[in-house]
Automatic annotation (TrEMBL):
Pfam family, one: Bmt2
Protein name, UniProt field: Uncharacterized protein
SUPFAM superfamilies reported in the protein's UniProt record: S-adenosyl-L-methionine-dependent methyltransferases
Gene Ontology molecular function, alphabetical: rRNA (adenine) methyltransferase activity
InterPro entries: Bmt2/SAMTOR, SAM-dependent_MTases_sf
UniProt keyword list: Methyltransferase, S-adenosyl-L-methionine, Transferase
Xref: CDD domains: AdoMet_MTases (cd02440)
Gene3D superfamilies assigned to the protein according to its UniProt record, in alphabetical order: Vaccinia Virus protein VP39 (3.40.50.150)
Domain of life: Eukaryota
UniProt key word Signal: no
Any one annotated GO CC term: nucleolus
Organism, as annotated: Thalassiosira oceanica
Length: 317
């Protein structure tokens, strides 16, 4: 697949999934039984009003558009190509290396001595196994510490990482097929959550807010989220600006932005967000977070990205 075809596929997928989600919502409001994927349930067309029939047709058309572009399969193939062009895992491995996390996190044992434990990582929307591979990577170490192998050598992991990778549609047996929204709270909170180019695939602004709040909840205090999204979402939407997105992340959800680790490429914004050690000193609810409002003048915008937070959810976090 060429880069151009991959770009077209991801753009079409986002457009058609948004259209499908809105048409399903409209059809449900009119009393039609429609599944999220656009399949019409138990419909006898003679029982439908003309308005319902039109809405059902609209849903079918949106589902057909999605199928015709190759659906989620084509989208994931395109995303795999995009990922191979900018490696998110390289970026976050570099950062974790600079923090000393790749050798594991220090814990003080009951007797006062130090040991190390694996870094617990959740990768949401994993379409490749780069992080899983890094966690499995091994080397031979001789007892005296050199790497020549030999009889006294033992196999050890290179990085102390414990990675759980999930995707709603898994492309590898090691990637767990799960919806992030359906995961129960973890027994042990995560040290790091990777959410790369996923929030822009979530179709409703409310669910995007829910995703950010749930990530915050799943992290231990001091844990970090590696969040990436297309810059287009921040710069080409009438209802979003970069400053407002950062207000949502900080004052809304409660994250601190690690400015020194956050960066931009020409197309992608790379955020490193940390969950503060204690109650978030920056969190401060504004009713704006619960609504959508135009933030820019003008008519032509290539994107309609926005985020809505639920006050009850962020207050529980
Ligand atoms: C654009 S791809 C990004 C993949 C990869 N993380 C990257 O950086 O290139 C988005 C992925 O997120 C997955 N995804 C979207 N919503 C999800 C959810 N609620 N739970 C788990 N995975 C999700 C999609 O299936 C898709 O594979």
């Amino acid at each position: 697949m060429s880069r151009k075809r991959a770009r077209v596929a991801t753009t079409k997928f986002h457009k058609y999934t948004q259209e499908l989600a809105s048409s399903v919502q409209r059809a449900r409001q009119a009393g039609c039984l429609v599944r999220d994927d656009g399949v019409i349930v138990d419909v006898v067309s003679s029982n439908l009003s003309p308005k319902q029939l039109a809405l059902v047709e609209e849903v079918k058309q949106c589902a057909n558009n999605l199928e015709a572009m190759g659906g989620r399969e084509e989208y994931q193939r395109a995303s795999q190509l995009n990922t191979s062009l900018f490696s998110t895992s390289k970026w976050l491995m570099g950062l974790m290396g600079s923090w000393g996390w790749l050798e594991g996190l220090k814990v003080v044992d009951r007797d006062g001595s130090d040991s190390r434990r694996d870094v617990r990582i959740l990768e949401i929307g994993a379409i490749n196994t780069q992080l899983l591979d890094a966690a499995k990577k091994t080397r031979l170490r001789r007892n005296n510490g050199d790497f020549n192998g030999g009889i006294a050598a033992k196999v050890e992991r290179v990085y102390r990482l414990n990675v759980r990778a999930i995707d709603i549609r898994s492309t590898d047996p090691r990637i767990e097929q799960s919806d992030f929204f359906a995961l129960p709270n973890p027994k042990d909170a995560y040290d790091a959550i990777v959410c790369s180019m996923v929030i822009n695939c979530v179709t409703s602004p409310q669910d995007r807010g829910k995703m950010l709040t749930k990530i915050f909840n799943f992290l231990r205090p001091g844990g970090v989220c590696f969040l990436t999204l297309p810059r287009l979402c921040l710069h080409q939407s009438k209802t979003m600006t970069r400053a407002y997105f950062e207000e949502i992340l900080t004052k809304g959800v409660g994250f601190e932005i690690m400015k020194e680790a956050t960066k931009d490429s020409p197309k992608i914004a790379f955020y490193v967000l940390s969950r503060p050690m204690n109650l978030s000193p920056v969190k401060c609810w504004s009713d704006n977070f619960g609504t959508v409002r135009p933030l820019k003048n003008g008519k032509k915008f290539r994107n309609s990205f926005t985020v809505i937070l639920s006050q009850a959810e962020v207050e529980r976090a």
